[in-house]
Amino acid sequence: MKTRTWILLLSALLILSLAGSLLSLRQSQAAYARITSHGRVIAVLDLAVDQEYTVDTPQGGHNVITVRDGSIAVTQANCPDGYCMARGYCSGGMQIVCLPNRLTIQFSDQGQIDGVSG
Question: Looking at per-residue confidence, does 7 or 115 come out higher?
């Protein structure tokens, strides 16, 4: 094959793979956020309502979770690395995790706690 054919073929494959990656990374906006601490669901927050929620654990963990304009973020935490705060405001997609304080925030379209997860 000629060089031009190879270039066109590789360009087409690159464009297809980038398009597939963008479609898979696209985040859908959730309606609720389920907050779990030490494996237990402790709250389900409506992302349509601006609010602040504080989680204190018996082990000394402290997280302040803020809901604003349909998004949620960990705005304060006493964990040593601060990765949960660096994630910023999110409205869907991958969960927010504070591993040292054993806190997770998962996105959901349902407001109630189902029988499987807690």
Answer: 7
Task: Give the CATH number for residue 69.
Answer: 2.60.320.10
- Asked, for residue 27, whether it belongs to a domain, the answer is no
pTM for the complete prediction?
0.69
Contacts from 98-102 at CB under 8 Å and sequence distance 24+? 98/61, 98/63, 98/74, 100/61, 101/37, 101/55, 101/57, 101/59, 101/61, 101/62, 101/63, 101/77, 102/37, 102/38, 102/39, 102/57, 102/61
- Could you tell me the residue range of the domain that residue 94 belongs to? 32-108
Q: State the number of CA atoms in the 13 A half-sphere of 118 facing the CB.
A: 12
Residue with tokens 């960990």: 74
The answer to whether residue 53 sits within a structural domain is: yes
Is 37 within the bounds of a domain? yes
